[in-house]
Structure formats: structure tokens, C-alpha cells
Amino acid sequence: MSSGARPPTSQHSLHSGVSMLNIFLKSHHGQQERPEFIPFPWGDGNQTLFHNSHVSPLPTGYEDE
């Protein structure tokens, strides 16, 4: 039984590649512009059907700004 370091396997290489891709994508995640408000065809047109105050715009802007 040897106690030395083993050469990298394809599973190790795949894990490293996916990890680097994830780091790259997460670093560019928050740099997109927020979309402008477009009235919705239901209700008063101000809120989406499933409204989220962090990502869904209102006529006056976003709720968290």
C-alpha cells in the first residue's frame, strides 16, 4: 500500500473544470443592468403575477433602491 500522491483522474479534472467555471460565472453575476418597467396585462399592471421585490420593477423603480 503506497502513501504517495495519486495522479489526477478524469473525475478530479472534471471537478476542477466545473469549479473554475462556477467561479467565473458567479463573479460576473451581478453586473447586468436591471430591466425597465413594462406594464403587465393583469390587475393594475404594476406588479408581476409572482412579484419579487428584489428583481421585479415597479413604475417608480425597484422597491429595494
Description:
- The protein has a domain at 37-65.
- Helix content is 28%, strand content 0%.
- It is built from one helix and no strands.
- With 65 residues, it is mainly α.
- This is (raccoon dog) hypothetical protein.
- InterPro entries: Cyt_c_oxidase_su6a_sf.
- It comes from Nyctereutes procyonoides (Raccoon dog).
* Backbone CA Rg: 23 Å
**Share of helical residues:** 25-40%
Q: Could you state the order of secondary-structure elements as H and E?
A: H
Note the overall shape.
rod-shaped
Structural class: mainly alpha
Query: What's the rounded overall pLDDT mean?
Result: 80
By DSSP (H or I, 4+ residues per run), the number of helices equals 1
For the terminal residues, how far apart are their CA atoms? 61 Å
**What amount of the residues lies in strands?**
under 5%
Please summarize the sheet with the most strands.
none
Q: Quick one: how many beta strands?
A: 0
Low-confidence stretches: none
InterPro entries: Cyt_c_oxidase_su6a_sf (IPR036418)
Protein name: (raccoon dog) hypothetical protein
Organism: Nyctereutes procyonoides (Raccoon dog)
Could you name the key traits of this structure?
mainly alpha, 1 helix
Give a nutshell description of this structure:
This protein has one helix at residues 10-27.
Write the layout of secondary structure elements.
Blueprint: H1 10-27
